Amino acid sequence: MLLHIAKCWYKRTRVRRNESYIATILPGFKHPLKNIMKKSKKDCDLKSCMMCRLCIKEWMPAMEVNRQNLYFKKGEVLFREGEELKGIYFIHEGTVKVHKKWGDKELILRFARKGAIAGHRGLGGDSLYPVSATALEPVTVCYVDLDFFKATTKINQDFLYELMMFFAKELKESERNMRNLAHMSVKGRIAQALLILTEKFEVKDDGTIDIELSRQDFASFVGTTYETVFRILNELTENNIIKVNGKLISILNMEKILSFTTDADI
After folding, report:
1. Helix (H) or strand (E) run with residue 54 in it
2. Cα dihedral across residues 145, 147, 150, 154: positive or negative
3. What distance in Å separates the CA atoms of residue 124 and residue 152, rounded to the nearest whole number?
4. Nearest CA to 70 among 144, 8, 163?
5. Strand ranges (DSSP E) for 174-245?
6. pLDDT tens-digit map of 192-220
């Protein structure tokens, strides 16, 4: 039955590929991003994006019609906390910070880069984005509206399974971060943050972690103040445990960094 639906999409998309047609098969379809966000001149390669990579071939013509490749400059917001959920973003190039209001401060929950998803936390419930996403560097995304995203999960089992695994992993990481925030010392959380960044972004040939973060963003990721991060990073630098060069950080003594995170097993 699902394969039959996909084939119907395939035949129809070969006949007409315009907004009027899409509106007939997706009731209420609109282009909420039209004339607001800048379309990217570089198309998705259909391999990096989880959705494009895992969809059945019969679904690809429908993907071609409904996806939009969008470009965001450094500092531009993809979506804001509290806004209505309108679609899902698959990161094609660049790095995005996913953050949430924490009193009068900001808490960075995670970083998303090539191959990752943003906007999915608004699924279910009141259909509002519970977090914000901001480009840390020039970013291109593959965007699909919510109705088409839901249709894609119903048709493509491999994509749905991978999505479920992604949600499970993210939930584990969120629980670990909340536990660390409650139990670990600030120095331990800073050490843990450095390990997370090393794992997610890897290390360049010169030994630096492959992400440029301002001290304020790093503090928001750790869950502490700018002043505390500045003081502890200076202390770690003076003790030759890390090396700081502008917004780049290198770990010089991994054993010592690991020793600061022992409270993470509480």
Report:
1. helix 50-54
2. negative
3. 16
4. 144
5. 242-245
6. 999 999 999 989 999 999 999 999 999 99
- pLDDT tens-place string over residues 118-164: 999 888 778 899 999 999 999 999 999 999 999 999 999 999 999 99
| CATH domain 184-265 topology | Arc Repressor Mutant, subunit A (1.10.10)
Cα-flanking dihedrals φ and ψ of residue 232, to 5°? -70, -40
Cα–Cα nearest to 194, from 238, 165, 237, 227: 237
Residue 78 contacts by C-beta under 8 Å, 6 or more apart in sequence? 72, 89, 96, 118, 119, 133, 134, 135, 139, 141
Ranges of H-type helices in 124-156: 146-155
Q: Which residues partner with 108 through β-bridges?
A: 99
127: left (phi > 0), else alpha (psi -120 to 50), else beta? Answer: left
Burial class of residue 69 in the structure, from the number of CB atoms within 10 Å of its CB (0-12 exposed, 13-18 middle, 19+ buried): middle
Please list the residue range(s) of the chain that carry CATH number 2.60.120.10.
33-170
Write the DSSP symbol of residue 176. H
Asked if 98 contacts 88 with a C-beta cutoff of 8 angstroms, the reply is: no
Specify the fold of 33-170. Answer: Jelly Rolls (2.60.120)
**Which residues belong to CATH 1.10.10.10 in the chain?**
184-265
Tell me how far the alpha carbon of residue 140 is from its chain's centroid.
Answer: 12
**Which residue type does 204 have?**
K
If we measure between CA atoms, which residue out of 194, 259, 190 comes closest to residue 228?
A: 190
In angstroms, what is the C-alpha Rg of the chain?
A: 21
Give the orientation angle of helix 146-155 with respect to helix 157-183, to 10 degrees: 110
d(CA 113, CA 136): 10
